[in-house]
Design brief:
InterPro entries: Peptidase_M15C, Zn_M74/Hedgehog-like. The protein has 208 residues and is of the alpha+beta class. The protein contains six helices and seven strands. The chain has one domain. Helix 4 packs antiparallel against helix 5. It is globular and about 50 Å long. The two termini are 20 Å apart. The site of zinc ion has 6 residues, from strand 5.
């Protein structure tokens, strides 16, 4: 059993064998760890449904950050000169990422366009074309400049899925170093998207 901070308990593994789609729709905690997240050099993701982090167990997010829009405790932060709303618990993490990115920009000022017009931090909504709650609902995610990004849903044609990316390695490294996962590591790529998921980057949470 897994006991969450709000006092509720859930089986870690519900014992059901699920397809990828079923894991997305009805995950247990075990499912959320079923695709290992790997850092390191950026590489095209070609294995179908290799989407580490897209399987989310909503009760964990609800317990950690709030189960309704009103419950999500959002604060204003300044991030690389832009005003953003993020969850109070994660504000210090955003600040650490900002410091890393400031150092990156000092070395490579030409990368600034990737880090302007960032947004989508706090937005209580569903994922596009689904009934599933977006990770943006909890104020723990950020989207970089859309015009420098690739999203599988926007590709034409949408099928077959063909990974594409132009987000630079040093930007990805800065976020991952602070516990964010990146949507560019997904077969269903969303390269503007970074999401605070320290459990997926913690070796202690990795299955053998
Ligand atoms: Zn996003």
């Amino acid at each position: 059993m897994a006991r969450l901070p709000d006092g509720k308990s859930y089986p870690f593994d519900d014992g059901r064998a699920k397809s990828f789609e079923e894991k997305l729709e009805a995950a247990d905690l075990e499912d959320t760890f079923s695709i290992p997240y790997r850092t390191g050099p950026i590489a095209p993701v070609t294995r179908e449904n290799e989407d580490p982090g897209r399987i989310r167990f909503d009760p964990l997010f609800h317990a950690a950050y709030g189960a309704t829009q009103e419950q999500v405790d959002v604060v204003d932060i300044t991030f690389l000169g832009q005003k953003l709303k993020v969850h109070r618990k994660v504000a210090p993490v955003f600040s650490r990422v900002e410091k890393r990115l400031e150092a990156v920009l000092k070395q490579e000022p030409s990368l600034r366009p990737y880090l302007t017009k960032v947004g989508g931090t706090f937005n209580w909504r569903n994922i596009a074309n689904t009934n599933r709650q977006s990770a943006h609902s909890y104020g723990v995610s950020i989207d970089l400049n859309v015009t420098r990004s690739h999203y599988w849903e926007w590709a034409k044609p949408k099928h077959p899925v063909k990974w594409a990316n132009q987000i630079p390695q040093v930007i990805v490294d800065a976020f991952e170093a602070e516990g964010f996962i990146w949507g560019g590591r997904w077969y269903h790529y969303d390269t503007m998207h970074f999401e605070y998921r320290p459990e997926l980057l913690d070796p202690a949470c990795r299955a053998e």
